[in-house]
């Protein structure tokens, strides 16, 4: 039997309180669910476990989230918001420099692929939640499509000769690296993600500028 330990919770706190145990119930449930789903899978964790680890009960959980599926969807929306913040950070760090932003995307991708042995939460959800009418399927599809389109736009702004082909090549390389990290570990092919990605970028960009 898997032992589940409480996650580190973050989020808005009740007015006049402090400490991780005093988060609002909804934020505590959501933070707990995100951590447990990430570490143990969407099918491997039930609402009883989430409520217990969050220090609440099923009645409270269902008051804030109508079902486990609704809770999963809310978790996935949270991951999508974090991705939006990452894209914003590229623009803030390298304003007006799409080439530098593209290389920054590579470095962040490498961190995701190598540091996190559990892989992409969206991909994991897609693998586990196979029902075509599951509400999470639309969230996953919309997220992945938007991320791919953003990468195409960045490649185009960087002056890539074939922006869509470059974006799709980098996209599939990252997806594969994250799966490889799960299957053969951090010392496998994913360890060379940056070198491979930079070589691909150099082949598509005029004069092949070096990474910053």
Number of separate helices: 9
Gyration radius over CA: 19 Å
Report the average pLDDT across residues: 87
Unreliable segments (pLDDT under 50, ≥5 consecutive)? Answer: 1-21
Describe the biggest sheet? none
Strand content: under 5%
Shape: elongated
Q: Please count the beta strands (DSSP E, at least 2 residues each).
A: 0
Determine the structural class based on helices, strands and strand pairing: mainly alpha
Provide the helix percentage: 55-70%
Distance between the termini: 47 Å
Order of helices and strands: HHHHHHHHH
Topology overview:
Layout: H1 25-40, H2 47-53, H3 58-64, H4 68-93, H5 98-115, H6 121-128, H7 135-157, H8 163-184, H9 193-204
């Amino acid at each position: 039997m898997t032992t589940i330990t409480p996650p580190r919770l973050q989020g808005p706190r009740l007015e006049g309180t402090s400490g991780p145990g005093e988060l609002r119930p909804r934020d505590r449930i959501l933070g707990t669910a995100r951590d447990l789903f990430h570490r143990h899978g969407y099918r491997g964790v039930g609402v009883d476990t989430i409520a217990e680890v969050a220090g609440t009960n099923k009645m409270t959980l269902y008051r804030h989230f109508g079902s486990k599926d609704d809770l999963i969807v809310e978790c996935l929306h949270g991951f999508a918001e974090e991705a939006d913040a990452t894209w914003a950070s590229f623009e803030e760090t390298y304003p007006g420099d799409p080439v530098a932003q593209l290389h920054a995307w590579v470095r962040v991708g490498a961190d995701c692929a190598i540091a996190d042995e559990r892989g992409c939460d969206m991909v994991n959800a897609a693998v586990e939640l196979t029902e075509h009418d599951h509400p999470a399927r639309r969230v996953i599809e919309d997220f992945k499509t938007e991320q791919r389109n953003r990468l195409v736009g960045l490649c185009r702004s960087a002056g890539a000769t074939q922006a869509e082909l470059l974006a799709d090549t980098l996209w599939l390389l990252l997806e594969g690296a994250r799966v490889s990290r799960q299957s053969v570990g951090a010392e496998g092919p994913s360890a060379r993600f940056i070198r491979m990605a930079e070589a691909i970028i150099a082949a598509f960009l005029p004069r092949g500028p070096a990474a910053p």
